[in-house]
Amino acid sequence: MDFALDYIWYAVLGGSRVRANVYAPLIVLRGLYGPIPVKLAEEILIDLGKSRDEVRGSEVVRWLARWHHSTLEEAIDDVSFFPAIGGQIKHKELHQALVNGFAELEKRGLVVRVAKEMAIYSPLDKIIDLIRNGLASDISQLSEDKKRRCAKRTALILGHILAMYPQLPRRGDLPKETEDVLGEALEPCVVDDYVTADEIVAPLFENFVSSMYEEAGRLYPKGTPAKAAKMLREVASIFSPLISAASIIGLETSKALVDSWRRRGFNVAEAFYALGLAALAAGAEVNEETADRLLYAASFAVQEVAHPAVVLPILAALRPLGEKAPNRYVSLLAATSELEVLDQETVQYIYDALQQLKDRLSKAEHLWPLVEAIRAYSNLLRKHSADLKNRWEEAVEDMWQLYSKIRGRSAVVAPEGGLSAQRLFDAIAKVYVLAVALENDVLAPLVQKYLGDFVREAEAVRSVLDEAVARPEELRKVVENDADFKEWVTTRSPIGDAGRMSKMLTSWFMHELARYKLVHAINERGELDEKKLKEAAEDFEKAADIDEKLEQWNDYLASRSLALRTRVFAVKSWEEFHKTAEGFQKLWEETEEHLDPIAEYLVTAVGSLGEYLVYQAAFGDKERAEKLLKEWRWLLDYVPEASVITRLMLRLFSVGEGAKLDEIVYAFWPRILQEYYPALWLLAGILQKDEALEICKQLSRSEVCVVAVDAAASSQEATRRFKSFIGKVRPNIVKVMRRAHRLLDRVDGRSLVEVLAPGDSRTRLALMLLAAVEGRVDAVRLHGLLGSVDYRNNVNKPLFRAVYENCGDLDGEGCRVALLKLYYLHF
């Protein structure tokens, strides 16, 4: 630290008190936000009254615009923060200069001190004003040709901001074809001087743009589109001198991108460029054709994002284009809904956008947007149903109404037998509707209301998909002769390969049917049915074989994983489990081989990692498992639910530190029954008892909530009362009341709350594993008993029952096998 401070004082500031006073405000901001772009830094200093002649072209400014060794970065962070909160640094002259610099920034409103939290922050709107004004002045001096070039560069920067990839690509680092496609976008221009530093988007600018788009995305579902639109205009105004150029180049550039993609596919850099072009042009007046083309190109970028947190800002940024090209915006919504991990606000945004567009869709002359809307509804219901808890029936009905439009048109024009666009549209839309029933037992009756025997319907529609795969020449002619169907094919794949799309759809639906067989692989006695398990495993393997040939590695790994896990469920001994689970090592090696830092692949990779880690901990090398956990913890944490349960499972085998109750609550809160939130928050140390009781008053089942909070607070009387009316709270327990009473008599209020709180089997598994790690045998067995009656129509029943029957000894092989099977079922 002392060496770093000396370096800053002598090497950077030249040991000059005068120089230190000039640049101290910039050092403070540098500590808050990382490197400050050169022109922006100059504008900030000039705004503070520093000499224009001194700061223009200053080496100090340039030094502060670059990243440095971690030792120097830590020193900059410390020296910028300590003086602001009354702390001290040893270098007295530097300390005093920074105190004065912070005071200057505070007086100008560029930083604010929050004394209570001992924190400081910078209101970015004032800094953004400096960027906006500086850019307007500098761009006004450019020729029209240079403005067009700069608009392309700005699009590349904006695309990388939205995708959360701040590192900008450079010539020499990209394939030649990509460099040719990006062209002038790879050349820095005046915009870089204000928003990038060291070839990386400046963190302060990235934070501002992302937060503005995200807030706009939150406002749309709240019924305040005018406020959302105002925020979007505020972002657009930063680049207003380039907006008109962006609208001109948007159409021609997106056409060029798509043409090249249809020859060879696309890569990440190109997709992000397309995303930035669309976002930049969204601030201009563009016609429907341009909006449609920009959205089409941008939709492929969504599938390449690294983190689900960026999806909402992207959807908001492109909303103005969606108003002009609603059909294409629906396909963007469908593409984003495919992501396995989305936050609740994004799910709500997608659903509300579909609700607003459904009337326009039902009147559309084309069928492909209806299919895309049905795909979006299906994805939300299958993958994110916990975030739509109170709207299931409404969502299924809307999805069915859209499918009815397709079915009605198909019945009128479809010929008898043979492939046709109408028959294919009907089959494709139906598989998305059926997938909801196949994947979710709770939603199945809602679908059954419209489709009847959905298993029989699924087998029938599968035959149509098989037919499309078996008749490639006939399928090709359908694409050639029907513009509507061709549009759907190219919407899903820029290369427009209908044969490939039909194989991918067939593989996916085969996977869905196999999953249904797995989940319902029980006989009339409620025991695992080995024959059904074998059939499901074989179907998963068939789907994996198709995906391997197509090099669809994400889908291949998902099906291969489920095939292996399905075979695990049939084992009867520890030795047999060990032998069967060896396949998880090869699966993880394949996952590493094809590792791709995009959202969908990372979710699948989390599963492969967890499967292999648990296998190593249970049967292999615990030291290797510890090492792998440390090395790949970043990946495991990408899916918080999987991370929590995997770490708890590992802890059972003495690997890692496990997870605490507060982590379970944060990861699983949408899946917890509402009346138990306050009690769990109390147990996790998130709330005090009086705060928890206050929340109880706002809930419909407030009486249950209050008793649960009292029980969680170790009230023996409340625990006794809770046990006395447990049959009313959870009616299913009545069926096993005699066995349950023996366990209920021995558990405390905390365990009782945890046993009653889960809203689904995954949450129950998490809380059960926590109890197992903490040695609470009776709580573990009670979880197993309730699980066996809560999920009585699927494989959860015998697997949870095995926990109840075998976990009297938590270290016994029978208990370990039972817990392992439940882990592999859920992850």
Describe the structure using short key phrases.
827 residues; mainly alpha; two-stranded antiparallel ribbon; 47 helices; globular
Written account of the structure:
- The chain has 827 residues and is mainly alpha-helical.
- Among the domains are: 2-122, no CATH class; 124-324, no CATH class; 662-826, no CATH class.
- The protein is built from 47 helices and four strands.
- A hairpin with a 4-residue loop joins strand 1 (112-114) and strand 2.
- Helix 2 crosses helix 7 (92-108), helix 23 (421-439) packs antiparallel against helix 24 (444-451) and helix 37 runs parallel beside helix 39.
Give a brief description.
The chain has 827 residues and is mostly helical. It has 47 helices and four strands.
Structural class: mainly alpha
| β-sheet strand percentage | under 5%
Strand order of the largest sheet: 1-2
How many E strands? 4
Helix content: over 70%
Topology:
Elements: H1 2-12, H2 17-33, H3 38-47, H4 52-55, H5 59-64, H6 70-81, H7 92-108, E1 112-114, E2 119-121, H8 124-139, H9 144-163, H10 176-182, H11 192-195, E3 196-197, E4 200-201, H12 203-219, H13 225-238, H14 240-264, H15 268-281, H16 288-302, H17 311-317, H18 319-324, H19 326-337, H20 344-362, H21 368-383, H22 392-413, H23 421-439, H24 444-451, H25 454-470, H26 472-481, H27 483-492, H28 498-519, H29 530-550, H30 553-569, H31 574-581, H32 583-593, H33 599-619, H34 622-636, H35 640-652, H36 661-668, H37 677-683, H38 689-696, H39 702-712, H40 716-724, H41 726-729, H42 737-744, H43 749-756, H44 761-773, H45 777-790, H46 796-806, H47 813-826
Antiparallel strand pairs: 1-2, 3-4
